[in-house]
Amino acid sequence: MKKNTELSLKSIYILYAGVFFFVVVGYTGALWYFTAFDSVVIWISLGLAATLLILGGALLWTMRVKMRGMIGKVDDIVERAINKQERITGYEETSISALEDKVHRYVDMSMTHEKNIEAEKSKIKALISDISHQTKTPLSNIILYSQLLGEVAGLDKESSQYVDRIKLQSEKLDWLIESLVKMSRLETGIISIQTASLPVVGAITQAISQIYSAAERKGIEVRISCDANVKARHDAKWTSEALFNMLENAVKYSESGGRINITAHSSEMFTRIDITDTGMGIEEKELNLIFRRFFRSKRVAEYEGVGIGLFLAREIVTAQGGYIKVTSKVGEGSVFSVFLPVL
After folding, report:
1. Degrees (nearest 5) of the Cα angle 315, 321, 324?
2. Which residues of 99-134 are buried (b: 16+ CB within 10 A; e: fewer)?
3. 152 and 63 assigned to the same domain
4. How far is the C-alpha of 219 from the C-alpha of 288, rounded, in Å?
5. Cβ atoms of residues 76 and 87 within 8 Å
6. Residues 57 and 162 both lie in one domain
7. CA pair distance 168, 174, nearest whole angstrom
8. DSSP SS3 for 221
9. Where in this chain does the record put each Histidine kinase domain (predicted)?
10. Disulfide engineering: 338 pairs with which of 143, 249, 273, 325, CB 3.0-4.6 Å?
């Protein structure tokens, strides 16, 4: 920064010096012309021009030296303020001292603000962890007991239905709490996504394995076309989570006997993963809304869900330096394209 500032100032000095030189030379030449090149006038004007050029050069040089010293001092002030070192000017009543005082106060405020943010993150992290723990254990017990109840011999049909409903609703609540915890951790920056240049086929197959049973029950064909050498800089675990959320929607909103195709290929800057389905499609006016937290279209009101899957998917992909695009036609299906950086 200091070097760039000095180069900029040097260009300004050269510009002003050039303008001053041409003004003096032009004025001298005009004077000679209008005095018919009188020898006395020529010598006087030459002396005056030389004096002006020397004085102007000295002034510019002095300004340059002072400005360089000022830039160096300001640079030292900022550096010392950041590193919490002793002040240069002490507490003198000068403009540079006032600047130093402001810089120190600004750095102190910034550091205090940063510490407060970190403290808040720690509190939120502890709160989320506590909520997750306090709800996870009771829910796990409810699910376990409902499974045990379902295995009890002699239950009548109505009782069995009640047990199945308890188990199903408990699993839904468990999934919802887990999703909300993930969402909160992503938004507060608590989750650290570790990216590396890896083949994307691992994340894709992991995501498919989580929805394959549901797709099979509906007779939905799932195909994958991805070369093992197709790589992207990503966190395989979290990329799999994002892809799963999109694939889950593809299965949920596709009719029985539908198809889901997953393809991946790399370009110079990004690796593109396309998830194409033959589902109900998305209205054009809703394409910019589907990634909002808790957004659900009126057309899918009868389907289960709370509207955080796509929000989580976008947050995960964005945190890795990528983005998601969607194209869709109502009644024909949708294409979710995930772009992940190659480098």
Report:
1. 55
2. bbeebbeebeeeeeeeeeeeeeeeebbeebeeebee
3. no
4. 30
5. no
6. no
7. 10
8. strand
9. 130-343
10. 273
Cα–Cα distance for residue pair 37/24, rounded to 1 Å: 17
Q: Containing domain of residue 15, as a range?
A: 2-86
SS3 198: strand
Q: What is the DSSP letter of 230?
A: -
At residue 306's C-alpha, the angle toward residues 302 and 309, to 5°, is 115
Tens digits of per-residue pLDDT, 63-111? Answer: 777 777 777 777 777 777 777 666 655 545 566 677 767 777 777 788 8
Are 297 and 246 found together in one domain?
yes
Residues, the chain:
343
Rg of the chain over all Cα atoms, to the nearest angstrom:
35
Tokens of 125: 């992290």
Residue 266 token pair: 């790399």
The Cα–Cα gap between 205 and 328 comes to 24
Neighbouring C-beta atoms of residue 77, cutoff 10 Å: 21
Reported as a single tens digit per residue, the pLDDT across 267-294 is 989 999 999 999 999 999 999 899 988 8
Compute the distance between CA of residue 60 and CA of residue 54 in angstroms, rounded to an integer. Answer: 10
Tell me: do 222 and 320 sit in the same domain. yes
Q: Do 205 and 320 belong together in one domain?
A: yes
Token pair for residue 161?
A: 């239905």
Provide the Cα torsion 162, 167, 169, 175; round to 10°.
180
In 122-256, where do the E strands start and end?
A: 196-199, 221-226, 231-234
User: Whole-model pTM above 0.85?
Assistant: no
Q: How many domains does the chain have?
A: 3
* Residue 220 one-letter amino acid: I
Backbone angles phi, psi at 324, to 5 degrees: -125, 135
